[in-house]
Amino acid sequence: MTDQKTAEVVARQLQAIAEPNRIRIIDCLRTGSKNVTELATLLRVEIVNVSHHLGVLKAAQLVEDKKRGRFVDYTLNPKYFSNDETNATHVDLSWCKIEIPHN
Questions:
Q1: pTM for the model
Q2: Which residues contact 20 (CB under 8 A, 6 or more apart)?
Q3: Hey, how many other C-beta atoms are within 10 angstroms of the C-beta on 55?
């Protein structure tokens, strides 16, 4: 049986993923690190909105950030994400596994 703490962590992570723009951000980051401006340009979304979504993903520990000069680069947390030869991104939250297919 899943303990309460694990259930809360997984629920927070699933809530973080369960938003269309966050799924799109995850898709953009699967090919490598990007900063907020690059993501906003790729997604055609306001920088402030991308920044908010990255904050939610970071709080759920699904993305990591690294300061590079005046920019902050974001990457998928390898603890939870992996890619395979089918170009699908796999999310392993220990309690459940999700496959995000790519076009």
A1: 0.84
A2: none
A3: 13
